[in-house]
Amino acid sequence: MGELLAKLMPNVVTKIPELLKCLGQTLYMMIITGAITFGIGIVLAVILTVTRKGDILENIPLWTVLDKIINFFRSVPFIILIALLIPVTRAIVGTAIGVRGAIVPLVFGTVPFFTRQMESALAGIDRGSIEAAQALGTSPGGIVFRVYLKESIPGIIRGTTITFISLVGLTAMAGAVGGGGLGDFAIRYGYQRYQTDVTIVTVIVLILIVTIIQGLGAFFARKTTH
Description:
- The chain is mainly alpha-helical and about 230 residues long.
- The protein has one domain (about 1-225): MetI-like (MetI-like fold).
- About 85% of the residues lie in helices and about 0% in strands.
- The protein is built from 12 helices and no strands.
- It has helices at about 1-10, 10-15, 15-50, 60-75, 80-85, 85-95, 100-125, 125-135, 140-150, 155-175, 180-190, 195-225.
- α4 (about 60-75) packs across α7 and α6 packs across α7 (about 100-125).
- The protein is elongated.
């Protein structure tokens, strides 16, 4: 078996420790970025939802400002966003390269996308449920937690799944500019040194990560749908 692998993937076999290290870096970037994005995105989505016209805390000026900011960051290609945020990244984490340097632009690139996913999930809540809660004298905070968030759990899970799958691609892209992880591994060896087996194995690993995320997301979405 070892001889077969060495024949089919000669370059990968000699770089397994580095491949595992880069896999760990990719998972680290995804977990840290995902956690930060989830917290910020949920808050922004709730604010956008409850302050829109006709909702429980209508505030058109605030809604307009947040909406424009999110649209701006969504419209900037991620590779350009990395360069644009270099001063900010250095100010926050002290470096603009490596895994630490990739997390800041990853957050800025992912939060707007995730916010829109969550806003869509929250917007799907039946207005009757909200009006019934208001008739019972439920406070705005109670409506947010007991109606908006509770009733949209399946949609939140689906949006989170889509965002994490998108994040896999962004971490690989960050590797192209020295962000570390599997993207950096594939660029350095697969592209720059023409080691095709490295590229193929990296793609397979990324596909496996996406498949696992999709499977877990679908499982939990089914479990919470009622």
